[in-house]
Amino acid sequence: MSNVPETPDTPDSHDSPDASEPADSPVRQSGGASDGATEARSAAARKKRRRGSRGGRNRPRSSGESSPGDPVDEHDVDSGHDADRDTSTPSGGEVPGVGANPSELPERLSEGRPSPEVAARAVVQRPKIGDTRPAPTTGPSVTMPGGTRVGAPNPGRGKSAKGSKSAPTNATNPASGDSAGSSVGGRKKRRRTGRGRVSGSDDRGATRSTDADVVERRRGRERNGRPVGRHFMCVQVRPNLTQVAVLEGRSLIEHYVSRPADDVAQIHGNIYVGKVQNVLPGMEAAFVDIGTPKNAVLYRGDVQYDQEDIVDSQPRIEQILKGKQLIVCQVTKNPIGVKGARLTQEVSLPGRFVVLIPNSRTYGISKRLPDAERKRLRGILDRVKPAEHGLIVRTAAETATEHELLADMTRLVEQWNAIEAKARKANGPTLLYREPLLAVRVIREEFNNDYRGVVIDDRQLFEDVRDYVQAFNPELADRVEYYDTSTEGLPIFEKHHVHEQIHKALDRKVWLPSGGSLIIEHTEALTVIDVNTGRNVGTSNLEATVFQNNLEAAEEVAHQLRLRDIGGIIVIDFIDMEIKENRRKVLEAFRTALARDKTRTQVFDISELGLVEMTRKRIGEGLLTSFAEQCSNCQGRGVLVNHDLLL
Description:
alpha+beta, Nucleotidyltransferase, domain 5, six-stranded antiparallel β-sheet, six-stranded mixed β-sheet, 18 helices, 19% strand
């Protein structure tokens, strides 16, 4: 196809009369004073256009112009008819071949082929707003209403080339009659509503999911008929010990331990009727007997009271609580060492999808959920939320239907009514509610379609867990399997290399991929983690070596905190870095790695000494405490004093 437009045999009725005049017509002749004035005005106009339109979005270019920098008469572009084209060159001559007898043309032009010089200089003209002429193209394209081609540069953009290869846009909107590419206003409207959508489209339909759609989303992925997921859970049961291991790929990331003796030590989440033993105004706390060996502590900030019974707007704890008073409370922190459990009077009952907060107006949705899902769940809760209780929607509710949310809330309300009835009959410290078994508790908190399976080596526990999953996530019930040790020939932890990783997690030293290391030390007040380069000597310079070592340490520290279940105050001593940007990147990488941890954490900026201070909510006793006991010789100091030197 030639880039030189063919001249119509018969001019249209609205064509210029100059189009049919011969080449030597007086209109085409140049010379005399009038010609000199005309050339002067043309030169001035060309100079003005060169300053204002070079490279701009509205710069007119024809397929036959001599070069991108040559002046072009603007009247030769906008008319849209070949009869109106000026065939003269800037010097006053004629463009060869245009308007001549076809029999007198060179062979390449008579066959419709341009000269090599013209073909090399051909430039695709950008369509302008209001231009109804089909723009020349270098390849196949789809003409859109309003003259905008798919794949053509957007005339609404400036000089920047970004965005010129935008995705195909929709055509005229039947509802509004607006063309998708005919006006600047239409383009601006599309930018506000988002790329790739018709202007004025309703985005709310994306959040309207039926129960069938939600259930289909949470089925999880499968490959060759088998579930696919990043995580895997192993549960090993022994007469005096139950262990739950969570693996990501083949790497152990979380480990839980439960013993029969934990009925006293592991009481987090239990609800009691407690008796106030004594109130300490100076500590703004009260000690409460809940039936455990050590009294639990209740701080002023965790006390609930009826405002009608208290005159002061900010009453002190001794005005609210009295000795021998019976109160309903819940354990928020297990007893550790010489410290008793910590209590709160803001009781909550966790379910699979929601957390019920009795006699409260609390109403919230997990921030981990996407905005569209939060909007869907908010609409459901507005219809089914109980008026007298508060609710918090959990992350697991992302794929919950309205029926499942209502069933979960109904079960929790009935459970709370039973707790209240039992509390009215109590006349001393009484256990009102106990958290379920460890395996069921972990399943409730963790299990979703990202798990490719749960394997349990105890028949009774397997049936209990399967029934629980069948009640709340029936589409995932087939992922819960029983592991027969006698048939498999290996204990479940040995088969999945869990014991090997637990042994490494009990060591104080952790190796990094590049040869560096971490030293983890526990004290009564806090946990200290020291970062060392070790065998990592680098290849370029000291700053680059230290930076790479700290990046590896940031990822590994976050992993070790989850695996060892380290809580409380934690101080990390990264290797000193001179470049401020490197310190910022290490801290950002550390926070990103911690985002995968569901336990609440708070990280502060690097101090002047190069230390990173952080806190992690302490729930359990930690991996080391679960598998170790205090040394009878050094009493936990880690050193033995040589008394012979003291003589």
